[in-house]
């Protein structure tokens, strides 16, 4: 499975960092990113600011290695503002009130 993830053209890690990684997860993530480094694209979406990713990884040495492969050759898009889900929910509620 790790080799397969290492070979796909685009790997998307969505909602990354919702829980702290355990030791096997840290090692697996490093192996996957190491296999992909310089050869394939990875997209990471997270509500956790990058400066707190070391805390999510849970090990300073592996954190440095993982972030080195992810962050230093990355294009970062930092979004601000209200969640689209929240906006859509509010708009749907308004629409429902207009159409009795």
Notable characteristics:
two-stranded parallel ribbon; 5 helices; 100 residues; Rossmann fold; 52% helix; elongated; mainly alpha
Q: Can you give a write-up of this model?
A:
It is a single chain. With 100 residues, the protein is mainly α. It has a single domain (2-98), classed as Rossmann fold (3-Layer(aba) Sandwich), CATH 3.40.50. 52% of the residues lie in helices and 8% in strands. The chain is built from five helices and two strands; from the N terminus they run αβαβααα. The protein has helices spanning 2-7, 23-36, 53-57, 60-71, 84-98, and strands at 10-13, 41-44. The protein has a two-stranded parallel sheet. β1 (10-13), α2 (23-36) and β2 (41-44) form a beta-alpha-beta unit. The radius of gyration is 18 Å and the shape is elongated. The N and C termini lie far apart (52 Å).
């Amino acid at each position: 499975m790790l080799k397969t993830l290492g070979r796909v053209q685009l790997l998307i890690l969505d909602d990354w960092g919702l829980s702290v990684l355990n030791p096997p997860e840290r090692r697996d993530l490093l192996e996957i990113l190491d296999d992909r480094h310089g050869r394939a694209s990875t997209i990471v979406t997270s509500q956790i600011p990058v400066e707190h990713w070391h805390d999510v990884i849970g090990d300073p040495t592996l954190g440095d290695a993982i972030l080195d492969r992810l962050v230093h050759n990355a294009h970062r898009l930092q979004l601000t503002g209200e969640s689209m889900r929240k906006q859509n929910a509010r708009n749907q509620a308004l629409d429902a009130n207009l159409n009795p």
